[in-house]
Amino acid sequence: MFVRSTQPLSRLMQRAAVALVASAAVASSASAANILRNSEFSDFTVSPWISGTGFSLLLSNLDHNNNTGSGSMRWSQIAGTNLGTSVFSECEPIGGSQAISAGGYFRTAGAAPSGAKVQIQVRYFSGVGCTSWISTQKSGFLTLGGSWGQAKTDQTTPSNAKSVQVQIDTQDTVLPADAYDIVADGIFLNAGAAGSPNPIFASNFNSGTLTDWIVVDR
User: Fold this and answer.
1) Structure confidence at residue 72 as a pLDDT band (50, 70, 90)
2) What does the alpha-carbon distance between residue 178 and residue 82 come to, in Å, rounded to a whole number?
3) pLDDT at site 120
4) What is the pLDDT at residue 149?
5) CA–CA dist 50, 183 (Å, integer)
6) Which CATH superfamily is 35-191 part of?
7) Whether 168 contacts 138, CB under 8 Å
């Protein structure tokens, strides 16, 4: 014996289409979850972000949404000291073979462009706690000016990835290295659950009845 629906195929196909749209909406919502902590710098600290050698991270009152109750992360470099620096997020767990999106908003702290550019790098590891590096994927460089611009990359995590870290790379386009003053805000690493299948149609029997289902002897 088996159970089947009494609905015509056309109605099943319509419901399947609706269910797939709903499922896609759920997946989209899940993928919009930012797994990074302190991405908007609205708690008056840059922690847990850390800097590379040669400079310190500070807070700025500039905000990419012009929110007076929030700010941004700021870092500077003295002229002639280095051509590039990096800022690192905390390490977060991640699943393999899932779609993610990473990015953020950047500008110079002053009104005049500094000659600097930034890019987002997403670093994948096969061990927890960001151990056993697998690969790094990049957004490409964004040249900075006196207004906010976005660097962003859409990726798929390696199948064996277990942890992830965001790295912001800065390079100076001026030789010898010029001084620059950069702010970052709204940094995100959006990721949803991996391996969640889309149902053909979603019933869940929320109506409290078995309407449209029958038992057939076979």
Assistant:
1) very high
2) 9
3) 97
4) 96
5) 14
6) Galactose-binding domain-like (2.60.120.260)
7) no
